[in-house]
């Protein structure tokens, strides 16, 4: 009985543990190499990140940089090697305080009324690597980014609009704006 | 407007399952009953030394299940303890004894509770040779046990209930592998990665640095869902954009979790020779699933609680691309099946919202449940329902032509007692033993107040039901929780399997009794309603008191 069990496991390891993933590795490399390697984004030929992995756009002190669109708060600090949510519960005083503090900080940073800051800007994502923000949050940032770069506000707002991705099939999920792709497009404007 | 999107998403899922469950259910019935073996299977049977033509008694079938799982447990444990010496381990050391035990129990028990952090603890070799293999075979074991029980109903005066080894091999080769390969290519197209790159260091546009993780994710992702396992490659599971990149891959992942559990009732109907019986079981699963999704979505969209109100929506621990509906659909699926994958952090759900995944598990994972385990769980409840009908309306207790006698009722009753005992005793002991309580409250619990109690209750509910999801703020990587949760997983998996196979043996030995005027029809809405009520009532009565100490206290006070 145990001998049979062991032999089945060895065979299963060869087929499902080795052959199956290697076969898919081959399929991925041949047919879908861009996705298989992580949807990497290049600027001037240099890889600057992955379209699927969010980044922080801060200075060395951790303060947000004015010329770049900012992502959602992250419990992982956008460390690609350690995805994490905050796991703070709905009544946790730390979370309540963090949301109030973020609302005030973002309103001051963008120069807007605190009531205008959307929920995604105030809450940490599940993965800590959320690459996207809501179109509302992106539009809220457009004026500040345009001023910092000396660009016309309408041009930056238009760029945001081009980067809005609607719901999949028109009804699945939420509309999003990919922060890295938007910032890469900004960089290309010069 | 939001509820329209919720209905549309649910309708998409329902439409797909409506189309697929018939061919897949019929195909699975054929897989487990066709007399002919494939050539490759004959080769395998020769190699492993199994006589594929002979059937086994329930005791021999059970010995096969237990021996196979015991060897798997030892192997996964050993691989982890030897990780330092294994190739492709990314320089990672061996996890501790208690963590290795927990992870081994968790993957062999089709639970995939993760006390460890995926990208920081396990290298490629353990992920492949240990975990990925168990993702396939533990799922195939669950299906085999379910089919053995179905045979108990279908066979007459039989001393045997099938052959475990052929069921195991066929389930893996003919069902899981082909669907997994197709599913993985679909997910790859959506952006799920499949490489051996390790970490790629990039310099960002701000002049900073970021390391982008790599790994054979697509191949693992698909079997983790299809086999209702749930163990993520990365720490944040299907919330990680490399595991679940878009709103449409999110729906594909939901479908992967549901496709086998919702097709097995058709397989059951086929094998017992009355498809209507399968549809009755399917209807109960469907009703519970839809109700759970509707309630959870309404609660989360309502966004009750201090923090969600302050933020203007319950988006803490949720990804922007999924939004609230994409998150609740995934949570309902993942806890209604015994998958336990997450695409949002249940710990950060609203207080009452976080209770719904718990309730899904407390139902005993039958809406629609894990691959195989959902079907056998609901069939055991059907036996109870038939008995209750006998007491209430004076029908003779029969199900599918088999008499439900004292032995069958004893086995079924023991089955429904195992899980609540594990959940309640595990939770209670964690707070009752003085030394343990100090560690649990100071080290393990993350959120203050009653929410912390919910974290521990969620953990034991998840382990005993072989789900694997968590209120993930809980630090479970402590000797106490690793060992007790590991034991809850093993007992929650294998004690019910012993009882189910004993039930299968006892049913198979009976002849069929012809239906009479006193027989309760078990394919009509009356029985569907009865079975639904029995399922909900058993849960509600057992767990209501402890829920008032946790999520109900937090959400209603």
What do you see in this structure?
The complex is a heterodimer of chains A (190) and B (557). By secondary structure, chain A is mainly alpha-helical. Chain A folds into 2 domains: 1-37; 39-189, no CATH class. In chain A, 48% of the residues lie in helices and 8% in strands. Chain A is built from 7 helices and 5 strands, in the order H-H-E-E-H-H-E-H-H-E-E-H. In chain A, the strands form 2 sheets. In chain A, strands 3-5-4 form a 3-stranded antiparallel sheet. The N and C termini of chain A lie far apart (70 Å). The model of chain A has no long low-confidence stretch (mean pLDDT 96). Chain B is mainly α. Chain B has helices at residues 2-33, 39-48, 58-81, 97-108, 118-121, 124-154, 164-190, 217-226, 247-271, 275-302, 306-311, 323-336, 351-362, 373-393, 406-432, 434-444, 450-464, 479-509, 525-549, 551-556; strands at 200-203, 209-212, 398-399, 402-403. In chain B, the strands form 2 sheets. In chain B, strands 1-2 form a two-stranded antiparallel ribbon. The longest helix of chain B is centred in the N-terminal third of the chain and has 32 residues, at 2-33. Chain B is globular and about 80 Å long. Chains A and B meet through helix 1, strand 2, helix 3, helix 4 and strand 3 of A and helix 1, helix 2, helix 3, helix 6 and helix 7 of B.
What is the multimeric organization of the chains shown? heterodimer
Structural class of chain A: mainly alpha
Shape of chain B: globular
Helix percent of chain B reads 55-70%
Strand order of the largest sheet of chain A: 3-5-4
Rg of chain B computed from alpha carbons, rounded to a whole number of angstroms: 23 Å
Q: Would you list the SSEs of chain B in sequence order as H and E? A: HHHHHHHEEHHHHHHHEEHHHHHH
Task: List low-confidence stretches of chain B.
Answer: none
Q: What is the β-strand count of chain A?
A: 5
Bin the strand percentage of chain A. Answer: 5-15%
Q: What is the radius of gyration of chain A? A: 21 Å
Bulk shape of chain A: globular
Secondary structure tally, helices of chain A: 7
As residue ranges, the low-confidence spans of chain A are none
Number of domains of chain A: 2
Listing every helix as H and every strand as E from the N terminus to the C terminus, the arrangement of chain A reads: HHEEHHEHHEEH
Tell me the helix content of chain A: 40-55%
């Amino acid at each position: 009985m145990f001998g049979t069990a062991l032999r089945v496991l060895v065979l299963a390891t060869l087929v499902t543990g080795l052959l199956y993933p290697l076969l898919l590795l081959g399929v991925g490399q041949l047919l879908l190499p861009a996705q298989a390697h992580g949807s990497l984004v290049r600027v001037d030929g240099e890889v600057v990140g992955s379209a699927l992995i969010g980044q922080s756009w801060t200075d060395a002190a951790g303060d947000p940089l004015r010329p770049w669109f900012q992502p959602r708060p992250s419990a992982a600090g956008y460390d690609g090697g350690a995805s994490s949510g905050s796991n703070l519960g709905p009544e946790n005083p730390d979370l309540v305080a963090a949301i109030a503090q973020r609302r005030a900080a973002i309103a001051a940073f963008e120069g807007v009324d605190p009531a205008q800051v959307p929920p995604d800007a105030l809450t940490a994502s599940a993965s800590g690597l959320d690459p996207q923000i809501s179109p509302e949050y992106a539009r809220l940032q457009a004026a500040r980014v345009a001023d910092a770069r000396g660009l016309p506000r309408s041009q930056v707002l238009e760029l945001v609009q081009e980067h809005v991705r609607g719901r999949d099939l028109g009804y699945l999920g939420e509309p999003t704006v990919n922060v890295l792709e938007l910032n890469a497009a900004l960089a290309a404007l010069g | 407007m939001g509820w329209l999107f919720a209905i549309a998403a649910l309708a998409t899922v329902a439409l797909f399952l409506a189309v697929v469950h018939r061919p897949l259910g019929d195909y699975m019935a054929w897989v487990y009953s066709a007399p002919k073996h494939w050539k490759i299977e004959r080769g395998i049977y020769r190699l492993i030394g199994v006589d594929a033509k002979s059937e086994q008694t329930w005791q021999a079938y059970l010995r096969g299940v237990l021996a196979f799982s015991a060897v798997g447990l030892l192997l996964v444990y050993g691989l982890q303890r030897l990780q330092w010496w294994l190739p492709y381990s990314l320089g990672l050391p061996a996890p501790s004894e208690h963590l290795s035990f927990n992870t081994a129990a968790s993957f062999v028990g089709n639970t995939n509770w993760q006390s460890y952090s995926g990208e920081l603890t396990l290298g490629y070799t353990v992920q492949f040779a240990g975990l990925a293999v168990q993702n396939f075979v533990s799922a195939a074991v669950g299906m085999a046990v379910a089919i053995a029980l179905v045979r108990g109903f279908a066979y007459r005066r039989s001393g045997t209930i099938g052959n475990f080894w052929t069921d195991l091999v066929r389930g893996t080769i003919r069902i899981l592998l082909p669907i997994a390969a197709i599913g993985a290519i679909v997910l790859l197209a959506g952006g799920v990665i499949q490489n051996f790159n390790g970490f790629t260091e990039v310099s960002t546009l701000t002049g900073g640095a970021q390391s982008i993780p790599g790994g054979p994710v697509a191949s693992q992702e698909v079997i983790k869902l299809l086999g209702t396992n749930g163990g993520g490659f990365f720490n944040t599971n299907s919330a990680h954009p490399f595991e679940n990149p878009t709103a449409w891959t999110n729906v594909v992942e939901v479908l992967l979790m549901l496709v086998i559990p919702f097709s097995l009732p058709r397989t059951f109907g086929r094998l017992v020779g009355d498809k209507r019986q399968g549809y009755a079981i399917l209807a109960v699963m469907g009703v519970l699933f839809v109700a759970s999704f509707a309630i959870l979505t309404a609660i989360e969209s309502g966004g009750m609680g201090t923090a969600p109100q302050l933020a203007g929506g319950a988006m803490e621990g949720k990804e922007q691309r999924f939004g609230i509906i994409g998150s609740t659909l995934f949570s309902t699926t993942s806890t209604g099946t015994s998958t336990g994958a997450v695409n949002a952090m249940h710990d950060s759900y609203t207080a009452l919202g976080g209770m719904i995944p718990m309730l899904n598990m407390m139902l005993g994972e039958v809406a629609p449940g894990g691959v195989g385990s959902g079907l056998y769980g609901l069939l055991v409840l059907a036996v109870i329902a038939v008995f209750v009908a006998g007491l209430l309306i004076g029908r003779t207790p029969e199900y599918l032509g088999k008499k439900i006698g004292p032995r069958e009722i004893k086995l079924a009753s023991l089955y429904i007692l195992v899980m609540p005992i594990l959940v309640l005793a595990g939770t209670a002991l964690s707070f009752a033993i003085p030394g343990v309580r100090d560690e649990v409250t100071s080290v393990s619990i993350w959120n203050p107040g009653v929410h912390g109690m919910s974290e521990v209750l969620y953990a034991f509910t998840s382990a005993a039901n072989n789900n694997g999801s968590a209120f993930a703020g809980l630090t479970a990587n402590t000797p106490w929780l690793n060992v007790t949760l590991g034991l809850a997983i093993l007992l929650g998996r294998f004690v019910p399997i012993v009882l189910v196979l004993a039930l299968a043996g006892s049913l198979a030995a009976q002849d069929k009794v012809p239906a009479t005027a006193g027989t309760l029809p078990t394919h009509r809405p009356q029985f569907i309603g009865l079975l639904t009520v029995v399922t909900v009532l058993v849960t509600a009565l057992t767990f209501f008191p402890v829920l008032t100490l946790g999520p109900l206290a937090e959400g209603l006070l």
